[in-house]
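Next comes a concrete protein, fold included:
___
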Amino acid sequence: MNDILTTAKSWLTDFFDPAVKKEIQHLIENDPEELKDRFYKNMEFGTGGMRGIMGVGTNRINKYTLGKSTQGLSNYLHRVYPDAELKVVIAYDCRHNSDTLARTVAEVFSANNIKVYLFSDLRTTPELSFAVRYLDCQAGVVLTASHNPPEYNGYKVYWTDGGQIVPPQDGEIIAEINRLSVEDVRFKAKDDFIELIDKQVDEAFINASVKNGDFNAPGKEDFSIVFTSLHGTSITAIPEVLSRAGYSKVTIIAEQAEPDGNFPTVVSPNPEEPEALTLAMKKAEEIGADMVVGTDPDSDRLGIAVRNLQGKMELLNGNQTMVLMTKFLLDQQKKKGMKGNEFIASTIVSTPMMQSLASAYDVECKTSLTGFKWIAKMIVDHPDQHFVGGGEESFGFMVGDFVRDKDAVTSTLLACEIGATAKANGKSFYQELIQCYADYGLYKERLISLTKKGISGAEEIREMMQDFKENPVKSLDGSKVITVDDYNTSTSTDIKTGKVSAIDLPKSNVLIYTTEDGTRMAARPSGTEPKIKFYFSVNSTLEQTNAYNEGNKALEDKLDRIVSELKLD
C-alpha cells in the first residue's frame, strides 16, 4: 500500500490539473480501497491499445494515461519514419469524454509535429480504418470501448495498412511508451497541425461501402429492414449506405438513434445480447419486417435477426451470419471466375464450418488468433492472394479488404443483399442458412462467458486457466479428447501418440480441446474485459433440410450436457 500511496502522491504536483489533484487528495484521505484500485498498476497499453474505466489514476482512462500512450506512439513514428511528413487520423465514438479525449490525443500528436486529421464529430471504426489509407497516413487512432459498459473508454491504434497494430510494431510501441513518465508528455498543442475532417472522407467511405457490399440483389424495394444503432456511431453511415444501395423500406428505431454514452434503453449496447435488440425485434413483429440489424457503439459488430421456420424473429449468432455471408461472397466470386488465389479467413475460436465451406469451394481458409488485426495482417502478408471475406464468432465480419477491421456498415448491406435475394427467390435468409448446414455439415456453437472483476477476479481467471492446463479435459460428452492445442506454448499434442507439433501462430493464452467426434472446446481470458470465455462447437450431418429442427435440438442437448459436465452452467 505504501507504493500505491507514493504513486498517488506523485499526481499531486503542479503538472496535473487542479481538479485531478483535488480528487486524489480526497481518495487518500477518505477511500483507500478506491485509491488502491486506481493506482495499483498502470493502465496497460496492450497489443491493440487500451481499454478501461474512465477516471483519475494510473489504472484508468484519462488525459494523462492516453497522453503518455500518444507520446510514445509519436516518438515511435518519428523513429520509424525519420524523414517523412507524419500524418495520423483520429476518430471517436459516442462515449462520455470521447470527444475531449480525442482532442487531447490530437493535441499531443500536434505538439510532436505530426499532422492530425481529426473527425469533426463521431464516426464509425470502419471509417477510421478506411481513412488511414485514404488519407495516406502512417497511423490512426479511434477512441472507443466498443460494447463495454458506459463507464469504459478506450484507445485503438491502427497502422499504415489500415489494420490494428501487430508484431513487431505493437511490442516496439509498448516498449516506447513504457520508457516514458507522464511528465514526458507534450500537451501544448500546435493548432496548425490539426485539421478537422468530415464530408469528403464520409463520401469516399460510403461510396466504397456500397461498391463492396452491393451485388444488385433483386427485390430490394420489397425487403423490409428494422435498424438500430443502439445509441452509437452507425447512425452516421448505415442508413445512407442502405439508401444508396436501393433499400427504401428501412425503419430506424428512433429511441436508439440519438448517440448517447449512457445507452439508456439497453442493459448493454452489445448486439450479441438478445436484450439489446428488444425494441427492434418488437418493431419488426409489428410491421412484419424481414430483418433486424443492430450494431455496437463503434459499429464494428452487428447482430442480425431474421424470421425462422415458424415465422418468428430469431437472433442469429456470429458464426451463422459469418458462414452465410462468406458463402454468398464466394458465390459472387465464382460468377466472376475464380483465379485460384482466393482465401477466406476466420479465427481459432470460431466455427470449424468455415473450413468445410472453403473445401467445398476449393479455396483456402486461413485461421488466425482471435481479433481482426490478425485477419488484416493476412492481407498484408499475402499480397499475391485475394481476400474474399471472413469473420469471427463475436459478430464481426469484413467484406473484401478496403476496410481492414470488423465492418458492420458494409456487412449490414451484405446481409440485406442475401436476404433480399432469398426473398425474391421465394426463400428466406434462415432457409439459406439451413441449406448450408445440409451442404457442409450441421454445426452448432455456444459461448459461456464468466465475469470476474477486480484484482481478485484477475487472479481467479489465471487460476482457472492454470487448472485446465494442469488437469486437462479427458473427454466431452463421452467422446475422448484426441488433440490439445496450447497456444501459450505454441504446441499441439496428439493424445493418442503423444506427438507434439508446433503451432505456427503467435503465442496467446488459449487452450483448445478437440474430441474424436469433432466436438471442440476453447478456453481463453478476454483481452478487453474482466472475463474468461469458453467456446463450444458440436456437429453432425443433416441429410435433409426438413430434418433441421430435430438435428438442431440434438446438438443443443449435447451442448447442455457438456456445459453441465464442466460445471459451467
Notes: DSSP finds 17 helices and 23 strands in the chain.
